[in-house]
Amino acid sequence: MKNLTTYLFVIFMAMFWVFRIIVAFCFNLGIEFIAVPTDLTFEIVLLFLTFVSMIMVIKRSTLGGIIYLIGNGLYFGTSLYNGFTGEGAINYSDMAFSFIGIILPILVLFDLLLDRNRKEHPVDKKTDWFYKNKDFDRQYDERADRNQYKF
């Protein structure tokens, strides 16, 4: 994790994860809150899946981004689709949080895919100017092989 965007996405993932924990906890206790989970059992499974995928995203694993996208797409995609088609009661705050739950994994996956090249071909500015520059290659003179010091 060397990019600022990666840090920000992981922070947003953690904030949204904590928010979903609070939503599930309030729903379980019967407290009125901004959002209501669609399915509490799937919500709890998604919370554990999100925690694992956060760790994988921190380690720069593309599989973590794919798991995060599939899990959130299955959970938040259905509620977002039902909100747009008008099936059931429309709760605009749930639709907004579902939209965030869909957009965030897409952005995380794009960040992982765009940063994949940097992981495979790292650049170190401290040494690349010397080692990747032909002007600074060592020049051996013709005496290098004939210099034999005898004592």
Structural overview:
- There is one protein chain.
- With 151 residues, the chain is an all-alpha fold.
- It has one domain (4-119).
- The protein has 6 helices and no strands.
- α1 (4-29) runs antiparallel to α2 (40-58), α2 runs antiparallel to α3 and α3 runs antiparallel to α4.
Gross geometry:
elongated
Question: Uncertain segments of ≥5 residues (pLDDT<50)?
Answer: none
- The percentage of residues in β strands lies in under 5%
SSE string, helices as H and strands as E: HHHHHH
User: Structural class per helix/strand content?
Assistant: mainly alpha
- The rounded Rg comes to 26 Å
Arithmetic mean of pLDDT = 83
Alpha-carbon distance between the two ends: 55 Å
Number of strands: 0
Summed up, the domain count is 1
Describe the main β-sheet briefly. none
Helix % is: 55-70%
**How many H/I helical runs?**
6
